[in-house]
Amino acid sequence: MPHSRKPHLDTLAIALLLACCMFWGFQQVLVKATVAEVAPVFQAFVRFALATVAVTAWCLWRGVRLSMAAEPAGAARAGLLAGALFAGEFACIYLGLQYTTASRLTVFLYASPFWVALLLPRFIPGERLQGWQWLGLAAAFVGVGLALGDGLLGPANAALPQAWLGDLLGLAAGLMWALTTVVIRTTPLARVAPAKQLLYQVGVSAVVLPALSLGLGEPWVWQFSTFAWGSLLVQALVGAFVSYLAWMWMLAHYPATKISVFVFLTPVFALLFGAWWLGEPVTTGLVAALVLVAAGIVLVNRRPAAA
């Protein structure tokens, strides 16, 4: 049965979007707080191993076929590629949080919509930017430039001399997120059930990340504190399972352009949670960068009025 789509966001959609963005902002702070006890890539591996079990159980309960043979031709290859990009994205996020603040990394990560705006029109001509959207793209890249400059030369550099490395890893994570979106939108994977798309991403990550963790020489210590186990469970079950499924459900029922405007709230929440919990510095350059990136997202998602 086809999904019934609503032309506008209702109270349920707005509440879910606010909850997701708030949690995603909090999640970066939670990961950074846990890095002191659980090595970053190993932490990501445990998270996605738990999420793989949860998503598989969900697919079985909902009757989503797990066999690759039941998919359109080429969907499995695209799914594995999307999974590899997803794993790379989160490896960069978890490693980057060793060097920079959660709020800074989130600003770079959420530059992803602009990578999509640059890359997707090469595959789908109807996605080309028009009018104010180009101004939004320019504003966002100026914001990213300001944030990078703050990490290299500004106050952030004095507090975190290697912040620039974490910033670049955050930028790379955003690019991989965008490439994952392009793969899903432009290949037969688009015709696969959203839960199965998510299973490819968390499942491949659960296979790739432990090899990367061992290659980096990270210690595999399973005797975590109650806080660390709680953090991993929240990251896996709320972050990689519930919030992602909620996001996919909203994409199936509401206009994607109106939903995506809410994404800019995530760096705001990361900034607030990082300052409150971890005492991360809030610099003028970072705030200016956040405002420019937020304004850019709104403009890029603005559609010209119908003639």
From TrEMBL:
It is a multi-pass membrane protein. Pfam families: EamA. It is found in: Membrane. The chain crosses the membrane at residues 12-30, 42-61, 73-96, 102-120, 132-148, 168-186, 198-216, 228-247, 259-278, 284-301. One of its GO terms (cellular component) is membrane. Its main location: membrane. It comes from the Bacteria. Keywords: Membrane, Transmembrane, Transmembrane helix. SUPFAM superfamilies: Multidrug resistance efflux transporter EmrE. Residues 12-147, 165-301 form the EamA domain. Belongs to the EamA transporter family. This is EamA family transporter. It comes from Acidovorax carolinensis.
